[in-house]
Amino acid sequence: MLELHRVTRRFGDKTAVDNVSLVVGEGEMVGIIGASGAGKSTLLRMINRLADVSDGKIVYSGRTISALKGAELRSWQRDCAMIFQQFNLVPRLDVITNVMLGRLNGRNPVLNLLQIFTPDEQLEALKALERLDIAQTAMQWAQTLSGGQQQRVAIARALMQDPKMILADEPIASLDPRNAQIVMDSLRDINSEGITVITNLHTLDTARAYCDRIIGMSAGRVVFDGTPEQLTTDVARTIYGADGLKEAFSEAMTSTAIAPLRLPRTPTNAQQAP
Ligand SMILES: Nc1ncnc2c1ncn2[C@@H]1O[C@H](COP(=O)(O)OP(=O)(O)OP(=O)(O)O)[C@@H](O)[C@H]1O
């Protein structure tokens, strides 16, 4: 279980995340929505420890992860893999090596430098690519792939970390509707196997279609935490403001406008928000 206790992050005078308290259970699929600048990325980055908290604490399974250092911090960052809008692959490396780099954290640095991977690691990387349905691209340079394929490689790389949790920061913001759907279906699929997924999303329709629980942020604060059904237009207005609401809905037309392929719910991922 992930717990955020009165977490705040300030940048100078600016409070990006303001006194946020949350509990996320194992196996939940949570969407975080909000207008640009609401604090969504900063929140995810603090969970992964790419950013430090200014106040408050973050606890996972009884461990205060906001205070971890050194090897313990690296181990936590393996447990909670991060996926970004811009994929963050190495463009002139083949896909399978990009995926195996998911293992970097915790391997012998000399082997990493020489890019020497064991047959087991190669097999595991291929399996991860197969799971994302892109094994046929294994030997191509990452930069030759479409955006949607690159994001699937990034997800395969995250899986190589054998994570307990995947944090996705606007994973479909750069993708066309078809690829956005494929990437969201992949995240959903992974979640159905028990991995907690917390994803920032710009658009309401995607959050509604794919997440069991939606958290709405505005000006650094959590202003909504509930099910898709509870996310009424009035609530959306509180999250986005009257002007932003129009944008949130119209942007939806360019995100996952294609109907998602809903997977059957499993006991692990069918949890409701507390
Ligand atoms: N490194 C930083 N230095 C200064 N200010 C920052 C930094 N990172 C974020 N901020 C500020 O904190 C606020 C929240 O930013 P954040 O990126 O978390 O919002 P967001 O909801 O993810 O927005 P977007 O959807 O545009 O990515 C913004 O006002 C932003 O300018």
UniProtKB/TrEMBL annotation:
Claim: Transmembrane helix is one of the keywords in the record: no
Name this polypeptide is given: Phosphonate ABC transporter ATP-binding protein
Q: Which UniProt keywords apply?
A: ATP-binding, Cell membrane, Membrane, Nucleotide-binding, Translocase, Transport
Q: Which PANTHER family match?
A: AMINO ACID IMPORT ATP-BINDING PROTEIN, PHOSPHONATES IMPORT ATP-BINDING PROTEIN PHNC
Q: Name one GO cellular component term.
A: membrane
Q: Tell me a Gene Ontology molecular-function term this record carries.
A: ATP binding
| Every ABC transporter domain range | 2-244
Give the family per the record: Belongs to the ABC transporter superfamily.
InterPro entries listed in its UniProt record? AAA+_ATPase, ABC_transporter-like_ATP-bd, ABC_transporter-like_CS, ABC_transpr_PhnC, MetN_ABC_transporter-like, P-loop_NTPase
Cross-referenced PROSITE patterns: ABC_TRANSPORTER_1, ABC_TRANSPORTER_2
Give the species. Answer: Devosia geojensis
